[in-house]
Amino acid sequence: MQEGRQQPTESTGKEPPEGPVALIEAALYVAGRPLDLERLGSVARVRSRKRVQKLARELAGEYGKRDTALEVLELEDGRFVMQLKAQYTPRVQRLAIRPLLTRGPLTTLSYVAYRQPVLQKQVADIRGRHAYGHLRQLEDLGLITRERAGRTSILRTTDFFADFFGLSRNPRTAKRQLQRYFEVAGLELKEKSLET
Hints:
With 196 residues, the chain is α+β, with helices and mostly antiparallel strands. The chain is 47% helix and 12% strand. The chain has 9 helices and 5 strands. The strands form 2 sheets. It has a 3-stranded antiparallel beta sheet with strand order 3-5-4. A two-stranded antiparallel ribbon has the order 1-2. It is elongated and about 55 Å long.
């Protein structure tokens, strides 16, 4: 038997429902965040990174042909993610059971993500005195890191932030992705629009 290939079932001659592409699809659906080739390979029981990448790209291609609200994307760092297409988010976001963050901390996080690396003082100047509480909450959730720089701190987002929001772990790429999301949502990322 070839690596990563399942034997066809005798009765139908077709690949069983739990074939590697279906397992990759299931993993991406359940994770709700980007997964790397190693993780996808372990779920799909495929050892070859090239084969896992080929199967994941096949799945992304299938989703690209469907008229559906979901998409499977390959990120620049080689990870794959299943997500809702950006144009559907404004219409269904209110149906989310419980948001991870309320509007204030989410706006502060957006500012940090877009301006990173950014000084904590700069965030507080733009977002107001509530920013310190927001930053504490964001750090507790593992979404940002602080690095001491004299009397202030330098703020950056974490890999967990990128994974959770389906963004690239590369800050420059993530900034471009955020810009596209803001444009689709009809938002402008101006200093004044991020004030409390």
